[in-house]
Write a structure and sequence with these properties.
heterodimer; A: 113 residues; mainly beta; six-stranded mixed sheet; five-stranded antiparallel sheet; 11 strands; B: 116 residues; four-stranded antiparallel sheet
Chain lengths: 113, 116
C-alpha cells in the first residue's frame, strides 16, 4: 500500500509569516507531485505541481522536491488569512495503463490576522 | 468552460438503503475518477475510468458499491446497501487523459452522504 504522510496540524502562523507544509511518500518510482488546497466544505483545487528535484516558484507559493529523501514541501510566503485551508499532498502512481493520485490526509493551516 | 458537475449535493439515508450519485465530467476529458473523502482524511480513490472502460477498481467495495460510465461521458456511483461508515463526501474528478502532461485532476463540488 503506497502511503503519503502529512502532519495533520493544525499549523498556525501569523499573517505575513512563512507557512511550511511537509509531505513524505513511500513509492520511490513516483514522478509527479501535487499540492491541492481545500477550503472547508469545498472540493480540492490544484495550486502547485512539481516533477523535478529542486524548487518551483509560483507567486507566493514554492514547492520543493527531494526524490532521494522522498520528501516534498510547500512554502507559502506572506501568508494571508485567505490561505487558511487544508493542504493536501498528492503523489502520482503510474501502472499499466493508469495514472492516479494518492492523497495524504492533509495539513490544516490557520493564518492568524 | 463548465466544470465537473455532480448531483445531488447532499443526501441523507438510513442504513441498508440505496443511493446513487451522478457525475458529468469536463467536456473532452477521457479519464474520470470517483474518490471517497471521509471527514478529516484525504480523498481515497474508489474507481478510475478511461473512456467507458474501468482502469482500476481495486479499492471499490464491490459487495455494495458499483459504478458505470456508459458511453464514456457521464458516470454514476451506486451504494446498496449503505452502511454507517459510508458517510463521506463522494468526489468526482476528471482529466484529459492519463499522461503526466494531461493528468491534472479537476474536481466537482462533491456529494455529501450521511447514513443514519
Amino acid at each position: 500500500q503506497k502511503e503519503v504522510e502529512q502532519n495533520s496540524g493544525p499549523l498556525s502562523v501569523p499573517e505575513g509569516a512563512i507557512a511550511s507544509l511537509n509531505c513524505t511518500y513511500s513509492d520511490r518510482v513516483s514522478q509527479s507531485f501535487f499540492w491541492y488546497r481545500q477550503y472547508s466544505g469545498k472540493s480540492p483545487e490544484l495550486i502547485m505541481s512539481i516533477y523535478s528535484n529542486g524548487d518551483k516558484e509560483d507567486g507566493r507559493f514554492t514547492a520543493q522536491l527531494n526524490k532521494a529523501s522522498q520528501y516534498v514541501s510547500l512554502l507559502i510566503r506572506d501568508s494571508q488569512p485567505s490561505d487558511s485551508a487544508t493542504y493536501l499532498c498528492a503523489v502520482e502512481e503510474s501502472g499499466a495503463g493508469s495514472y492516479q493520485l494518492t492523497f495524504g490526509k492533509g495539513t490544516k493551516l490557520s493564518v492568524i490576522p | 468552460e463548465a466544470g465537473v458537475a455532480q448531483s445531488p449535493r447532499y443526501k441523507i439515508i438510513e442504513k441498508r438503503q440505496s443511493v446513487a450519485f451522478w457525475c458529468n465530467p469536463i467536456s473532452g476529458h477521457a479519464t474520470l475518477y470517483w474518490y471517497q473523502q471521509i471527514l478529516g482524511q484525504g480523498p481515497k480513490l474508489l474507481i478510475q475510468f478511461q473512456n467507458n472502460g474501468v482502469v482500476d477498481d481495486s479499492q471499490l467495495p464491490k459487495d455494495r458499491f458499483s459504478a458505470e460510465r456508459l458511453k464514456g461521458v457521464d458516470s454514476t456511483l451506486k451504494i446498496q446497501p449503505a452502511k454507517l461508515e459510508d458517510s463521506a463526501v463522494y468526489l468526482c474528478a476528471s482529466s484529459l487523459d492519463i499522461t503526466q502532461e494531461n493528468g491534472e485532476l479537476f474536481f466537482g463540488e462533491g456529494s455529501r452522504l450521511t447514513v443514519l
